[in-house]
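Renewal narrative, Specific Aim 1. Our central claim is that a sequence can be written position by position from structural information alone. The example that follows is taken directly from our test logs and has not been curated for this report. It begins with the structure tokens describing the chain, in the order in which they were read.
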């Protein structure tokens, strides 16, 4: 997909991003991700510079702790306007994830949450740009729809956010890229089992209970999300 066409699409949905994410299934994933992020940040060193690449409206930024400065970067100006994370330690930048407007070796932690499946044809370029701005010893936190789960191939054709140009990313593709760029793997985990269209609470609770078991079993690759933490 052409970059200009993707920008038009992202800008269009940016106005309604929070409304789209207000579904019960999306909120289930947002709340779980907030917990994972807070635990991850709390366990790591303080005073880091964090970049949230494709931050959207910053729904989980409040879970980021122990940082010196947080930069929210998104292609959608409308989404950034709806981002309420403000203060002396925060900034919002309207920019392309493939052309990050930051200096080389200037960032301690890069968050790539729900970005890569929007740019499946630009994974190599994306990794190169992320590694350009990441310090030696810096960390990349990736959270993506799991390409091994067949739900996403169908859902992305229907979802307003994903239906233009998006494709689920297979974890082995990301691992291959990590190996090519000599990145060490800190964590490799499949999580979540709630279908993204489920809106009834007792059904979400039901799938969550099943998912809790699956995450710890050999069937974990069937989970709906994939989390990968890499170190440069």
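The sequence written for that structure reads:
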């Amino acid at each position: 997909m052409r970059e200009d066409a993707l920008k038009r699409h992202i800008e269009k949905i940016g106005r309604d991003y929070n409304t789209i994410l207000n579904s019960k299934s999306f909120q289930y994933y947002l709340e779980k991700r907030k917990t994972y992020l807070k635990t991850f940040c709390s366990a790591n060193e303080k005073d880091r510079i964090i970049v949230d690449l494709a931050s959207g409206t910053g729904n989980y930024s409040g879970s980021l702790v122990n940082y010196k400065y947080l930069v929210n970067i998104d292609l959608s100006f409308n989404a950034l306007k709806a981002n309420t994370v403000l203060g002396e330690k925060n900034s919002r930048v309207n920019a392309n994830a493939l052309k990050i407007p930051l200096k080389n070796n200037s960032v301690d932690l890069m968050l790539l949450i729900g970005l890569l499946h929007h740019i499946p044809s630009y994974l190599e370029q994306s990794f190169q740009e992320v590694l350009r701005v990441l310090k030696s010893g810096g960390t990349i936190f990736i959270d993506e729809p799991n390409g091994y789960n067949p739900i996403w191939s169908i859902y992305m054709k229907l979802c307003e956010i994903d239906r233009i140009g998006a494709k689920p990313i297979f974890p082995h593709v990301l691992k291959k890229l990590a190996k090519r760029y000599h990145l060490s793997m800190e964590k490799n985990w499949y999580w979540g089992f709630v279908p993204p269209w489920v809106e009834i609470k007792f059904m979400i609770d039901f799938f969550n209970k099943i998912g809790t078991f699956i995450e710890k079993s050999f069937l974990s690759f069937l989970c709906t999300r994939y989390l990968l933490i890499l170190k440069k």
